[in-house]
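hey so i finally got around to running the thing on that chain from the lab meeting. sorry it took forever, my laptop kept dying and i had to restart like 3 times. anyway pasting the input first so we r on the same page abt which one it is
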Amino acid sequence: MPFILSLGKGLNFMSCSNKKIVITGLGAITPLGNSVSDTWESACNGKSGIVPTTSFDATEFASRISGQVKNFDPALWQNKKTIKKTDKFVQYGIAAAKQALADSGLEITEENAARVGVIVGSGIGGIETIEKQYKIFMERGPSRLSPFLIPMLLIDLAAGCVSIETGAKGPNMAMVTACATGTHCIGEAMNSIQRGDMDVCIAGGTESAISALGVGGFCAMKALSTRNDEPARASRPFDKGRDGFVMAEGSGIVIVESEEHALKRGAKIYAELVGYGASGDAHHITQPAPGGEGYARALRMSLDRAGIAFEKVDYINAHGTSTYYNDIFETQAIKKVFKDHAYKLMVSSTKSMTGHMLGAAGGVEFVLSCLAIKNSILPPTINYEEADPECDLDYIPNTAREKNITYAVSSSLGFGGHNACLIVKKY
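ok and heres what got predicted. didnt touch it at all, straight out
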């Protein structure tokens, strides 16, 4: 039977089921490592993955640093024929998805394939392929274009290729909400399972946009850090000296599953996914709404869906981009929703170590949130050196914190005014 939760001010949230949702597998390809364990260890040790950009000649660019994935070998996850037909963002997604599936212990068979879905998105898609193929087009003509140009650049091909590679035959789709993509994909997986559309979903985000065009576009917006001489110290969310975000790439994928299905097959469970909120700013194509108004509504929605008072939340893995407006408005939204409890919350931005992975950010940060709640260790915000009077919360500065927590929030905000929040509970 449907149940309704009040969102305040006359708004209600309706869900089709009170079915419990759990996380049973994690996968990650990040600037901190090409596995979940390496990424988690680096994050807990406050290690930065930001380095001078080498994927193209960045000499003339204002920002010459990035969170590059290092020593990634797609041949570990795909055969050579399919590698030639896929952009890097798809390759990262396949690798993270296969990691998560192996971690979950789920075997996809003809009997259960139709009940396993895929919701994997990207913010930008195959921009590197577009660049390379346009150069070929201009220099050698249209007859020399790759027949795989279109499928290589399409954002939905990450989800499509994950389905092909794993055999998952359930609902298959790609969310595209810029930097909120990974978070929305996981939230919509929760919705789909509770609606009864599937029992399990491979969900998250993937991105590879560290190219001349990708970086050049963000440089033109003056959105990127230009602390080129100190790559590891460039991403500094909530710090007064922040000067922009650092472009990064990677993928974060999780296995979202109904508790009933997970218990029936004896799966290990990282955490319970209890809340999901999404909203739109209707304000500006790049800047968040003043005071984080839209983000605050998404936060409240996730709390209402979880059925918990705001005082129950212990930790927030913040969007925390290291840009002027985001960090201030995100802080203001947290104080608006959590009131006095905001000063008891522990908040950190793992983008201080990974950089900003755009459409993959929410997936990776959700992976880290699940591990924080499972392992009772909260990753820090590194490079926090000078407090900004307008950012006055506990940002877990510079050193990880051992703390037993029950509820954690993972938040993402995207260009276009997209806001998404997930709440996980200790299982």
